[in-house]
Amino acid sequence: MTQYKDLVEKRRVMIQAEAWGEKIKEHYYQQDKGYFITYNSGKVIKIEDGSNKLIEFGMSVEELVDQYLRFGNENK
Fold it and tell me: Over the stretch 34-50, which tens digit does the pLDDT of each residue have?
């Protein structure tokens, strides 16, 4: 069973990074442009007329894991 230890740990970190990436980093309103929500993953959504519009895609999984390991698990 120990031969899978590294693989299981890598997957555990990936799942944690994906959950961290879906947390809101900031939200703000720009006059004449609208309300924007930015997530830890880099994804940006604009809310207008009751619907969500994807403005910017988030990072790749590899980038997300790297950012999570650098910044996301500071509270641990």
Answer: 899 999 999 999 998 88
Whether the full predicted model's pTM is greater than 0.70, yes or no, is yes
Instruction: Determine contact, residues 19/66, Cβ cutoff 8 Å.
Output: no
Total tally of structural domains belonging to the chain: 1
Question: Structural domain of residue 56, as residue ranges?
Answer: 2-72
Kindly report the CA angle at 72 between 51 and 37, in degrees rounded to 5? 15
Task: Judge whether 65 and 53 are in contact, CB under 8 Å.
Answer: no
Residues making up the chain, counted from first to last: 76
**Tell me: the pLDDT tens digits for 50-61?**
889 999 999 999
d(CA 37, CA 46): 6
What does the alpha-carbon distance between residue 61 and residue 14 come to, in Å, rounded to a whole number? 8
